[in-house]
Amino acid sequence: MKRKSQGRLLLLLLLAAAALLLYLRQDTPPDYQSDGLLRVCIDAGHGGDDPGAPDRDRTRFEKDDCLSMTLAVETALRASHPEIEVLLTRTEDTYLKLDERCDMANDWRADLFVSIHRNSAQSDAQGVEIWIPSGKPAADKRLAQAIFDGLKAVGVSKARGVKGGTAANPTSDYYVLGHTDMPSCLIELGFMTNAEDNALLDRHHNAYAQAIADAIADTLLAQ
Ligand SMILES: [Zn+2]
C-alpha cells in the first residue's frame, strides 16, 4: 500500500511538472527583451519604384546609397559581432511599404530597429542627423546618440544632432519609428544634394558602416 501511494504521488508530481512545462512553453509570450537573443532589424530606406532623393545631377539616388550602407553594416556586424542576429527589411532594389517594414521588425521581435536614409534640400544644407520618436524615449536616444557619436568620430561635414519628431513637425513621428515596438532611430546619412556629403560617404563608407555596427552592438550588449 505504501509503495502504491508513493507511486501515485510520483505520477502526480510528474503530471504537474509536465503541465507546468506546457504552460511555460505555450501560454507565456516570449519576452523578446530578455530571451538572450540580440536582434537588430536594419531598414534600407526606399527601393524599387521609390528612388528617394536624387543628387543634383539626378544620377545618384538615395535608395541605392541606403541599400549599400545597410549591406555594409550587416557585413560589419556579422564579422565583428557574430552573437548579434541581423534582419534586413530588403537586400535588393525592391519596393516595400512602410507598414511592411514595421511588421517585419515587430513579427521577428527585433530588439532594435535602425532605418538608413539620406537627406536632401534646396539649400546647401549638409551634415548628419538622426531622428528618434517625438517623445524622445531614453532607449531610443541612447541608440541614436551612440550611432551619432560613432559617425562624428569618423568625420562628418556637420554634426546636426539627434532630434525628436520629424523635420516638418517636432510632435509627430516618422512612420517607421512610430510603428515599431522596439527602440528605433532613423539615420539621415548626409545630404544627397551636397557634393561634400556624397564625397564623404564614398570615402568613409566602410568606416561609417563599422561605426554604426559597433554602436548597435554596444547598445544591445548594454541592454
Ligand atoms: Zn529617405
What gross morphology would you assign? elongated
Report how far apart the termini are. 56 Å
Which residue ranges are poorly predicted, with pLDDT under 50 across at least 5 consecutive positions? 26-32
Can you name the CATH architecture of the largest domain? 3-Layer(aba) Sandwich
Q: Do you know the CATH topology of the largest domain? A: Aminopeptidase
What is the CATH class name of the largest domain?
Alpha Beta
- Strand order in the sheet with the most strands: 2-1-3-6-4-5
Indicate the structural class: alpha/beta
What's the main sheet like?
A: 6 strands, mixed
Q: Can you tell me the CATH superfamily of the largest domain?
A: Zn-dependent exopeptidases
Average residue pLDDT? 91
Report the sheet-strand fraction: 15-25%
Question: Helix tally?
Answer: 7
Q: Which ligands does the model contain, each kind named once?
A: zinc ion
Percent in helix: 40-55%
Number of domains in the coordinates?
A: 2
Summarize the structure.
With about 220 residues, the chain is an alpha/beta fold. The protein has two domains: about 1-30; about 35-220, 3-Layer(aba) Sandwich (Aminopeptidase).
Which short descriptors sum up this protein?
single chain; 223 residues; alpha/beta; Aminopeptidase; six-stranded mixed beta sheet; 7 helices; 46% helix; elongated; binds zinc ion
What does this structure look like?
- This protein is of the alpha/beta class and 223 residues long.
- It has 2 domains: 1-30; 37-222, Aminopeptidase, CATH 3.40.630.40.
- Helices cover 46% and strands 17% of the residues.
- It is built from 7 helices and 6 strands; from the N terminus they run αβαβαββαβαβαα.
- It has helices at residues 2-26, 62-80, 98-108, 138-154, 175-178, 195-203, 205-222; strands spanning 38-44, 84-88, 112-119, 128-132, 159-164, 184-191.
- The chain has a 6-stranded mixed β-sheet, sandwiched between helices.
- Helix 2 links the parallel strand 1 and strand 2 (84-88).
- It is elongated, with a radius of gyration of 22 Å.
- Residues 26-32 have low confidence and may be disordered.
- Residues 45-46, 52, 62, 117 line the site of zinc ion.
